[in-house]
C-alpha cells in the first residue's frame, strides 16, 4: 500500500533528499563521521552552513542587505524575539488571521507587561473563525511604528496572503512557516521573514530568520540567545546550532533548485491545490470553510463532509487506505490536506479517487 503523508508538520520530505542523507549518513564527505557527529566549528560543517545560506539567498532572491540566520526554538520563539529586539518604546501592529497570528499577538501582549512597547491589534477575522483574511486600513498605522506583523499562510484555517497590504511605510514582519519556498514572494517587500523548517525546508529544529540589516537591534536584548545582533554577528554560531537540520535544509534547497526554483514550486503547488479545490467546488457533499477564493492557501486545504460523524468516518477510512495525517487540526476538526512542495501530484489524484468513492457510499 502506498502511503501519502498529509501532515501539516513535521511534513513530507523529498524522497531524493532522504536517500542522499541516507547514503551520506555514516560518512559525510569522506570525513569518516556522520553529519550528526561533526563539530559545528569543523571545515565540513562550515561548508554546509555557508552553502545552505548561499542556496537560500539564490532561491528567494535575498538582497545583500539582509542577514540569514539559522536559529532554534521554532517560529514560536520568534513571537518573543521580535518585540524584544525591535519594538522597545514603540508601537507594534498585529494582523490576526489565524491561530498562529493570535498566538504571536498574545505573546506580544504578555511581553508588554514587562517590556515598554505597545502591541496593537490592527485587524482580525477571529469573529468569523478565521474564514478570511481581514482588510487592513493603512491610515490607522503610525508611520513611526516598529513593524506590522502578519502570517502569510494560516496552516490550520487554510488561508493565505499573496498581495501584501499597504502599511504606511512600516516594515512588514512575516511568519512564513507554512509557505516559504512554496509561494514566490519578493523578500525586499518585507523587513523580516521567519519560518519553522518542518513544512517545506526540513526536519523540525531549525528556524530560518531573514532580517534587513537596518532592523538589527542596537541595544542588547534581554538574553544573548534571543539577540538578533549577536546571532548575526556570530553567523548563527553563537552556540551549537542544529547541525543535522541545517544539513537537511541544504539538501532540500539543492533539490528545489534542481526543479527550477521557487517559481516552479508555486506553479506545481497551484496545480495540486486547484485539483482539490475544483473537486470540492463541484461536490455537493464536501465544503471548504474558506470564504474567499483569493484567500485560499496552496499549502493547507481544509474541508468537511455534511456532519462530524461522517468526518470521523472519513478520517478513519482514509487512514486505513494510506492517507495519513489528513485529520483536521483539533481546534477546527474536519480534514486538512497539506500539499507542501514535496507532496506528489499523484497523491492528490489518489485522494480525489478516495473522496469520490466515499461520497458515493455516504450521500
> Could you give the order of the helices and strands?
EHHEHEHEEEEEEEHHHEHEEH
Uncertain residue segments: none
> For the terminal residues, how far apart are their CA atoms?
27 Å
Question: What share of residues is helical?
Answer: 25-40%
Rounded average pLDDT:
97
What's the alpha carbon Rg, rounded to whole Å? Answer: 21 Å
Tell me how many strands there are.
13
**Main β-sheet, in a few words?**
7 strands, mixed
Principal-axis shape: globular
Approximately what portion of the residues adopt beta-strand conformation? 15-25%
Spatial sequence of strands, sheet with the most strands: 2-10-9-8-5-3-4
Helix/strand-derived category reads alpha/beta
Number of helices: 9
Protein name: Phosphoserine aminotransferase
Subunit structure: Homodimer.
InterPro entries: Aminotrans_V_dom, Aminotrans_V_PyrdxlP_BS, Pser_aminoTfrase, PyrdxlP-dep_Trfase, PyrdxlP-dep_Trfase_major, PyrdxlP-dep_Trfase_small
EC number: 2.6.1.52
Protein described:
With 363 residues, the protein is an alpha/beta fold. 36% of the residues lie in helices and 15% in strands. It is built from 9 helices and 13 strands. The strands form 4 sheets. Strands 2-10-9-8-5-3-4 form a 7-stranded mixed beta sheet, with helices on one face. Helix 2 crosses helix 6 and helix 3 crosses helix 4 (99-111). Its EC number is 2.6.1.52.
Amino acid at each position: 500500500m502506498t502511503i501519502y503523508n498529509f501532515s501539516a508538520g513535521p511534513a513530507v520530505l523529498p524522497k531524493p533528499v532522504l536517500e542522499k542523507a541516507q547514503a551520506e549518513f555514516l560518512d559525510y564527505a569522506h570525513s569518516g563521521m556522520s553529519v550528526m557527529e561533526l563539530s559545528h566549528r569543523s571545515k565540513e560543517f562550515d561548508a554546509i552552513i555557508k552553502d545552505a545560506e548561499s542556496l537560500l539567498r539564490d532561491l528567494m532572491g535575498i538582497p545583500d542587505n539582509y542577514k540569514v540566520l539559522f536559529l532554534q526554538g521554532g517560529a514560536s520563539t520568534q513571537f518573543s524575539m521580535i518585540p524584544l529586539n525591535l519594538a522597545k518604546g514603540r508601537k507594534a501592529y498585529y494582523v490576526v488571521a489565524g491561530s498562529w497570528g493570535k498566538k504571536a499577538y498574545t505573546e506580544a501582549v504578555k511581553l508588554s507587561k514587562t517590556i515598554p512597547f505597545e502591541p496593537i491589534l490592527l485587524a482580525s477575522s477571529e469573529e468569523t473563525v478565521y474564514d478570511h483574511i481581514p482588510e487592513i486600513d493603512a491610515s490607522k498605522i503610525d508611520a513611526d511604528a516598529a513593524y506590522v506583523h502578519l502570517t502569510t499562510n494560516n496552516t490550520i484555517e487554510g488561508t493565505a496572503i499573496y498581495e501584501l497590504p499597504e502599511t504606511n511605510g512600516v516594515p512588514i514582519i512575516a511568519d512564513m512557516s507554512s509557505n516559504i519556498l512554496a509561494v514566490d514572494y519578493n523578500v525586499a517587500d518585507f523587513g523580516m521573514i521567519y519560518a519553522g523548517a518542518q513544512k517545506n525546508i526540513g526536519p523540525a529544529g531549525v528556524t530560518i530568520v531573514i532580517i534587513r540589516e537596518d532592523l538589527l537591534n542596537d541595544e542588547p536584548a534581554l538574553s544573548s540567545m534571543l539577540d538578533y545582533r549577536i546571532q548575526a554577528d556570530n553567523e548563527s554560531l553563537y552556540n551549537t546550532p542544529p547541525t543535522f537540520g541545517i544539513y537537511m535544509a541544504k539538501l532540500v534547497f539543492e533539490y528545489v533548485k534542481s526543479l527550477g526554483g521557487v517559481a516552479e514550486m508555486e506553479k506545481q503547488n497551484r496545480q495540486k491545490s486547484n485539483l482539490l479545490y475544483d473537486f470540492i467546488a463541484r461536490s455537493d457533499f464536501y465544503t471548504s470553510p474558506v470564504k474567499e477564493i483569493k484567500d485560499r492557501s496552496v499549502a493547507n486545504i481544509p474541508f468537511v463532509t455534511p456532519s462530524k460523524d461522517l468526518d470521523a468516518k472519513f478520517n478513519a477510512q482514509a487512514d486505513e487506505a494510506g492517507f495519513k495525517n489528513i485529520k483536521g487540526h483539533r481546534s477546527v476538526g474536519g480534514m486538512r490536506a497539506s500539499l507542501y512542495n514535496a507532496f506528489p501530484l499523484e497523491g492528490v489524484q489518489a485522494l480525489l479517487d478516495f473522496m469520490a468513492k466515499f461520497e458515493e457510499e455516504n450521500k
